[in-house]
Design brief:
The protein is α/β, with parallel strands linked by helices and 340 residues long. It has a single domain, classed as TIM Barrel. The chain contains eleven helices and ten strands. It has an eight-stranded parallel barrel with strand order 1-2-5-6-7-8-9-10, surrounded by six helices. Strand 3 and strand 4 form a beta hairpin. The protein starts with 24 loop residues before the first helix and ends with a helix. 38% of the residues are buried. The N terminus is likely disordered.
C-alpha cells in the first residue's frame, strides 16, 4: 500500500513554466532582523471540493504579507464498506489529498513560500526518499517533519514496515539526503538536497511523553538530527510557552522556536481543543468562555484573547507567530490587523 500524495505530481511541472524555488523558513527569519513575522497553516480541501475553497481561506490573509504558509498532510483513514453478502470490507481512504500539489498551487497563485508537512505514518523510507526527490525537482526546499497521528480509530501509532517510528529518524533521513547520502548504497556521489527542516514542539508536553523532561529530550534528538527550527503546538497560556523556550535553551536547543496559536471561534472548541490537543485553558479565558451563549460570543472572546496573546508574544521577541486557521481566516485576520 502506498498512500503517497506525491503520485499526484505526475505532469505537475507542466503547469508551471519554471521551478518553484522557495526561500527557506530560516532565511525568512534571518532577513527579518528581529521583526516578528507572520505565517499560518491551512488544511487541504476535502476530496471532491474545488481548490477555490482553500483559496478563499488564504486570500484574506495575504494583505499581511505572510512569510510562509504550511499545508498539512492527512494520512489514510479506514472505512468499512458493506458488501452484497452482508459482510464488510475494510478500505483505506484519504479525505484531504493533494498536500504538495496545493503547495505548488498556492506558490503559483499568491507568490508566497509554502511548507508541506511530511509524516512518518503510512510511508516506508524508500517512499519518503522518493517524495523528497519529487519536492527537490519542483524546487521546494522547506518541509515540516512530523511523526503524525495514529490511523483514525486506532489508539497507538504503528509505523509502516521499514518506515519511521519517530520524527527524529525522519529528520535524520532528510539530513542525510542534504549530505548527498541516499538509501541506495550504489549512489556514491549523490546530489545533496537542500531542505530546511522544521519540527514540532510541545509547550505543554506531548501527551504520550512521560513528563516534560523526557519530551524535551526527544525534541533535542530531532534538533541534533538536523532540524533547523521548531514550530509549537497551539497553546493559550503564553507563560507556558516562555517556560518552554527557557527549558529548551537550558538543554542546548538553540534553533529558532516559533509559537503556534489558534483563536477559539465556536462553542465546540471549548471542549474540543483541550481534549484533542491536550492543552490547558487558562482560568481567565475559561471564565469568559463560560459566559458565552453562542458562537458569535465565543468568537469575540477568542479574538480578544488572540490579540492579547499576539501582542505579548511580539513583545517577548518571538521570531514569527504561526496561526492555525483550520481553513477559517476571518478571526486570524482581525487578530493580526489589530496586534501587528
Amino acid at each position: 500500500m502506498s498512500p503517497f500524495f506525491f503520485k499526484q505530481l505526475w505532469g505537475l511541472t507542466c503547469i508551471f513554466d519554471t521551478q518553484i524555488f522557495t526561500v527557506k523558513v530560516t532565511e525568512h527569519l534571518d532577513n527579518a532582523k528581529g521583526k516578528t513575522l507572520f505565517s499560518f497553516e491551512v488544511l487541504p480541501s476535502i476530496k471532491g471540493r474545488d481548490i477555490q475553497d482553500l483559496y478563499n481561506g488564504v486570500e484574506p490573509l495575504m494583505e499581511f504579507d505572510p512569510s510562509f504558509i504550511n499545508v498539512t498532510y492527512h494520512r489514510e483513514e479506514f472505512i468499512y464498506k458493506k458488501l452484497s453478502n452482508g459482510l464488510h470490507e475494510k478500505i483505506a481512504a484519504r479525505k484531504r489529498p493533494g498536500t504538495v500539489s496545493i503547495c505548488a498551487a498556492i506558490k503559483n497563485k499568491f507568490k508566497v513560500d509554502t511548507v508541506p508537512h511530511l509524516i512518518c505514518g503510512g510511508f516506508t523510507r524508500d517512499e519518503t526518499e522518493l517524495a523528497l526527490i519529487d519536492m527537490q525537482y519542483l524546487g521546494m526546499n522547506n518541509i515540516l517533519a512530523l511523526r503524525g497521528d495514529p490511523v483514525k480509530g486506532e489508539s497507538t501509532f504503528v509505523p509502516e514496515k521499514d518506515g519511521h517510528a519517530y520524527a527524529s529518524t525522519l529528520v535524520q533521513q532528510v539530513s542525510m539526503m542534504n549530505q548527498g547520502r541516499y538509501i541506495d548504497d550504489e549512489i556514491v556521489e549523490g546530489i545533496p538536497t537542500d531542505f530546511c527542516i522544521g519540527v514540532a514542539g510541545y509547550p505543554e508536553k506531548h501527551f504520550e511523553a512521560q513528563n516534560m523532561k523526557t519530551d524535551l529530550r526527544y525534541l533535542k534528538e530531532k534538533v541534533d538530527a538536523g532540524a533547523h527550527y521548531i514550530v509549537t503546538q497551539l497553546f493559550f497560556d503564553n507563560q507556558k510557552f516562555f517556560n518552554f523556550v527557557e527549558e529548551c535553551r537550558s538543554i542546548g536547543i538553540n534553533v529558532p522556536i516559533i509559537p503556534g496559536i489558534k483563536p477559539i471561534t465556536t462553542l465546540k472548541h471549548i471542549a474540543f481543543l483541550p481534549k484533542t490537543f491536550h492543552i490547558d485553558m487558562p482560568e481567565a479565558l475559561a471564565d469568559e468562555l463560560e459566559k458565552c451563549k453562542n458562537n458569535q460570543q465565543v468568537t469575540e472572546v477568542g479574538i480578544e484573547w488572540g490579540i492579547q496573546q499576539t501582542k505579548e508574544l511580539i513583545a517577548y521577541g518571538v521570531p514569527c507567530i504561526h496561526y492555525y486557521t483550520m481553513g477559517k481566516s476571518e478571526a486570524v485576520k482581525k487578530i493580526v490587523k489589530t496586534a501587528y
